[in-house]
Write a structure and sequence with these properties.
By secondary structure, the chain is mainly α. Helix content is about 70%, strand content about 5%.
């Protein structure tokens, strides 16, 4: 049975690779990146415990080692391959380094050697995915075709593969769940309907990156007129319905609000046409699904879940107030999600409620900003926000380029990034779930790669000095965009 499944899987992979080579222009390294990221997306939790090693009383599980080995290989390749123009990651690396230093100081101050060990483990979980995604994208040539293939890789994995698994898991939970070793989560009164799940973890983590894939697919439909990506929009939308996660639905709706507000001025016909198509397909599908499935969870407000989330947020704020500069120590305040939760064989693993500052709290505050503030301190939290802001500002500036496709990409990417930043008020995936975080940061660096490529094509610079001049010019126009637009209008 396993041999037959493996043979079928190999045949499918060969077919997919052939199609990508013929129709999408994939090259060997593109296929390697796609294959590696596919293993990241499908890295099942059972592999974590099978390859877990404790160092200074802190578990490093299978995915941590897989990520570190991949980073080592990519660093070796980085020494051999140099692409121009550079991605200009200096400011991001500098702030990430400052974040790491503050985290180590916090761990040492709050827990001595034990706290330092905990801080190192947390940094592997938190910054490892960022560095891994940066290394992958930095090794890619700065061409428009490469940028397009990077987007397609993200869309295929997070906009096609993961939503398909989520939908199938909802429709046939027993068959798929038993095969992949997952347990069904009942989330509806209707018999046989379970909450959609995925190998990336929780519905919040999965939905976070799914909407990012949706943003890239939206650009392909509106900006590049690639109609088949409408299938991706439909898959992601359907998967979000089956996940029954309110925060993901809010992020999904917020993305549309931000993107359409920007795009409808530039391509009103395409935007309205797509809206009509989505409504014509989506409304009948939802009506039909409601005959069998219940989506009432989207409308539930209050209850034990909301109360524990509110209590968790208050507890995190109170904990951060105790030591606003260095927090309570990375991995010391919310310890179990970095120890017992990583080792499911440990007795008592999976506890969902703890006590923080004499308040009932979830195992983490479900808010990435409060998580950093409570454990690392407010300066580290501001650095995390600054990293996200710097990435957004650099990509957003490309909206000033004259090419219509550049403006479409800037609008779609920015809407996805902003809606993700808002959703992180209810999720901590980038700092808790490294598997999801790889794709979170991969989306960020896809935007930066595209921006550098688009700028180089517009200015055709050949030296770092010319690139700096182009950057300064774009920054100037960005700062005076409002004045220039008003002048043009008059």
């Amino acid at each position: 049975m396993l041999i037959a499944v493996a043979a079928m899987g190999a045949a499918v992979l060969v077919l997919v690779a052939a199609l990508l080579i013929v129709f999408a222009g994939y090259r060997a390294f593109d296929l390697i990146v796609l294959g590696f990221l596919a293993t990241v997306a499908m890295f099942l939790s059972r592999f974590n415990s099978n390859f877990a090693i404790e160092i200074m009383d802190r578990p490093y599980v299978g995915f941590h080692w897989y990520m570190l080995i991949a980073m080592t290989i990519l660093l070796g390749l980085r020494g051999l391959v140099h692409h121009r123009p550079p991605l200009r990651l200096g400011g991001i690396v500098l702030m990430a380094g400052a974040f790491a230093v503050l985290s180590l100081l916090s761990g040492l101050f709050n827990g001595g050697g034990v706290g330092l060990s905990a801080a190192i483990q947390v940094l592997v979980i938190a910054l490892g995915p960022l560095l891994l995604a940066a290394l992958i994208v930095d090794l890619m040539p700065r061409t428009e075709a490469t940028s397009s293939r990077l987007r397609l890789t993200f869309i295929l994995l997070i906009g096609v593969l993961i939503p398909s698994i989520t939908i199938m898991f909802s429709i046939a939970p027993n068959a798929l769940g038993s095969f992949l070793g997952w347990s069904a989560m009942a989330a509806s009164r209707q018999t046989g309907f379970v909450r959609g799940w995925s190998p990336l973890g929780s519905s919040g983590s999965t939905g976070l990156v799914m909407v990012m894939a949706y943003a890239l697919a939206m650009h392909e439909v509106i900006g590049n007129r690639k109609r088949w990506h409408i299938i991706v929009l439909f898959l992601v939308g359907l998967a979000i319905l089956f996940m029954l996660a309110r925060a993901v639905l809010v992020m999904f709706l917020l993305f549309h609000l931000i993107y359409f507000a920007s795009a409808i001025r530039r391509a009103p016909g395409r935007v309205l046409g797509l809206a009509v198509v989505c409504a014509a397909v989506g409304v009948p599908v939802i009506i039909k699904l409601q005959e069998r499935y219940s989506f009432e969870r989207f409308g539930l407000v209050g209850g034990a879940s909301d109360e524990i989330r509110a209590s968790s947020a208050i507890a995190a704020i109170e904990a951060s107030a105790q030591n606003p500069l260095l927090g309570s120590g990375p991995g010391l305040l919310y310890e179990e999600i970095r120890t017992e939760w990583l080792m499911p064989r440990v007795e008592g693993a999976g506890r969902k409620v703890t006590i923080i500052e004499n308040r009932s709290s979830a195992m983490e505050p479900h808010n990435v900003y409060l998580l950093v503030a409570a454990e690392h301190g407010w300066p580290a939290a501001l650095l995390f926000v600054a990293i996200m802001f710097l990435i957004w500002r650099r990509v957003r500036r490309a909206r000033l380029l004259p090419d219509a496709r550049s403006r479409s990409m800037a609008a779609a990417w920015s809407a996805g990034w902003i809606s993700a930043a808002v959703m992180l008020l209810t999720a901590s995936a980038p700092l808790v779930n490294p598997q999801t975080a790889v794709f979170f940061w991969f989306f960020a660096f896809i935007g930066l790669h595209w921006r550098v490529t688009a700028m180089e094509q517009e200015w055709d610079y050949e030296t770092p000095v010319e690139q700096d001049a182009a950057e300064d010019a774009l920054a100037y126009y960005d700062g005076h965009a409002g004045v220039l637009m008003d002048t043009a209008a008059r």
